[in-house]
Each structure stands twice: as structure tokens, then as C-alpha cells.
Amino acid sequence: MLRYLHCLAHSLLLLAAIALLLPLSCFSQTESSAPIKVGIIGLDTSHVIVFTKSLSDPTDKQYVPGLRVVAAYKGGSPDMEASWSRVDKYTAELRDKWHVEIVNDIPTLCSKVDAILLESVDGRPHLEQVKPVFAAHKPVFIDKPLAGSYKDAKEIAELGKAAGVPWFTASSVRYWGEVERLKHAEGIGNILTFDVLGPTIREPHEPSMFNYGVHAAEVLYQLMGPGCESVSMQTSGNEDVLVGKWKDGRLGVMRGFSKGLYAFSITVYGDKGVLHSEGRPEAYHELLVEISKFFKTRVPPIDNNESLEVLAFMEAADVSIARGGVAVPLSEIMK
Fold first, then answer.
1. N or C end of the chain: which has fewer CB within 10 A?
2. Closest CA to 227 of 208, 207, 251, 197
């Protein structure tokens, strides 16, 4: 019996010694592997359904592990058809199919989650909707458009900085594989500039490029980088053409159609050749990967100042139209 107790004590001491040598992560594996609880604000865009499915269903081809949508706030804009005509349908699907809890206000939502997806299809309420998120110190992805005006976007940036809360915004098309390929195109010599095509479907309550033009604008900035000094815009029928002049002298072109053609493409010009994009943009997987990294690291993948400049670029385009197509300095918008 004494020999048995001696062996048992020796075994326990050995296990204790091994435990001291193991990293704490070994004992918190279950806790660390638990998904980040995500809340959604604004259930009036198809993104809320796609994102929830891709974060919940391992069989989904766009599945991204590590996040789980658990609660949502309905929101909605009664004066925007794209909002009021869809919000009830999407709310019901999230609640009934994906078992997402629907709450009555944003502070309650924030109390139940670790991070926020601000998805309201209308950019105008984003400023007011993000205020309680900043107050709750939750990292937030703000879907396009960042806001309903450059002025509101600037205030979002200032409030986020003051609260010490990280945020970012992006179009999913920024992460289209062709963007990265053509940004570093080979075989055409020194890259001179880019021409980006994307739809420019209007929403009457927002500046003309905020609704759909933001996709092409974001791609142009992903390719050209920040530093645009001025932009001019011409429109004829359904076609829109924006030309931005960058500080280093390059001209970046964005074009699209407000009706009819719905397509995305990129043309890159080098001093020894030209290349064109192939295929069409992937869906949302790469954006969700970036959102997942952001929620885990709290480091925005896109500089907030660049996101503000994109909005100034688009807002300056409307000023250009009002002035007959002349170039408008972005500094005039950003003052």
C-alpha cells in the first residue's frame, strides 16, 4: 500500500511539473477557439444574409471560421425603397433560419456582442448608428458607403479616434484577385495609370457615386493609392466618366453606367503595353477574411484617411457636374 501511495505521489508531482512547462494556451483552448460574437446593425441589405451564412455554415463555399452572428438591430430607412422594401424580409430570415436574436436598440446589441457589422444600406444614418458602438468600445466594420456625406464621414473618423475604437470600411471589390494582379502587372514596363469600370446606379438621397460608384472608386484607390488632388466628371446619357489627378501627375480614370451595362473591369497602362482584367469579381469571401482579421487584431486593413479621401473624391465629382465638368480640388471638400 505504501509503495502504491509513493508511486501515486510521484506521478502527481510529475504531472504538476509538466503542467508548469505547458503554455497557458493549452488550458484555454476551448475558450480561445470560441467564435467572436458579432452583431449586425441594419437588416436592409443582402449582405446581412450572405455574411451570416458565410460565417455560420461550414459547407458554404465562402465560409470564414472564427466569427458568429448572434444578434442584430433591424434599422431601416422609410424614405429609401431599397431599404424599406427588404428590411422585414431579411429580418425574418435572420431570426427564423439563422436563429439570430433581434434586439430593439443598438446599446442592447452592443452589450451582447464582441464586434459590430454596420450594414445599413443607406449611408445617411451611419453616423448616428455608430455613436453607441464607439461608446461601447466595439470594433466596427462600416459597409459602403461609409456615410451619407464627407462631413458625416469625417465626424465618424473623429469620434472613433477620440474613443480609441478601430473601424474600417471597404467595398468587397477591393479584394478582387485581379486588382492585386494588375496593380503589380508584369510584362508591360513601368505602370503609368489605371482605368476602372463599375456600375454607377444612383440613389437619390446620396451623392451620385455613393451608392454603386463607390465600388469602382475603391478599386481605383486600391490601385493608385491615396493622394488625388482634384477630380472632374462628365456624364452623357447613362455614362459617367471621372478623371482624378494625383499629386505625382498621374491621371486615374473611373467610368460606369447608371443604367444598362452592369460590369466590372480594369485596364492598366504601362510604357510598353496594356493589360485587362479577366473574369468577374469574386463575392465576399476575401472581404470577410479581412473583417475577421480586423476583429481579432483591431488593426484596420485600410487607412481611415484613405477611406475619407475616397468619399471626398466622389463628392467632388458631384460638384464638378454642377460646375460643368471642371476639375474640383478635393481640398475644397475636405476643408
1. N
2. 251
Taking the C-alpha atoms of 116, 120, 121 and 127 in order, what is their torsion angle to the nearest 10 degrees?
A: -100
Q: Report the percent of the chain where pLDDT is more than 90.
A: 87
C-alpha angle with apex 127: 318 to 220, nearest 5 degrees? 45
Cβ contacts of residue 250 below 8 Å, gap of 6+?
Answer: 192, 193, 224
SS3 269: strand
CATH 3.40.50.720 residue ranges for the chain: 33-169
Which residues lie below 8 Å from residue 123, measured CB to CB, with a gap of 6+? 144, 145, 146, 147, 148, 152, 206, 210
Q: Which residues contact 160 (CB under 8 A, 6 or more apart)?
A: 130, 134, 166, 167, 304
Q: Find all residues with CB under 8 Å of 237, minimum gap 6, and list them.
A: none
CATH of region 173-281+302-334: 3.30.360.10
Expressed in angstroms, the distance from the first to the final Cα of the chain is 86
Answer yes or no: is pLDDT of 322 > 50: yes
Q: Say if residue 2's pLDDT is above 50.
A: no
Burial 196-226 (b: 16+ CB within 10 A, else e): bbbbbbbbebbbbbbbbbbbbbbbbbbbbeb
In this prediction, residue 17 carries a pLDDT of 43
Cα four-point dihedral sign 57, 177, 259, 171? positive
pTM, two decimals, is 0.88
pLDDT band for position 60 (cuts 50, 70, 90): very high
Instruction: Using the CB atoms, write b or e for 71-90: b if 16+ within 10 Å.
Output: bbbbbbbeebebbeebbeeb
Give the list of residues 6+ apart from residue 13 with CB closer than 8 angstroms, or none: none
Q: What is the pLDDT of residue 32?
A: 52
Rounded average pLDDT over 49-63: 95
- Cell numbers placing 259: 443604367
Domain 33-169 class in CATH: alpha beta
Chain CA centroid to CA 77, Å = 20
Longest dimension (CA), the chain: 100
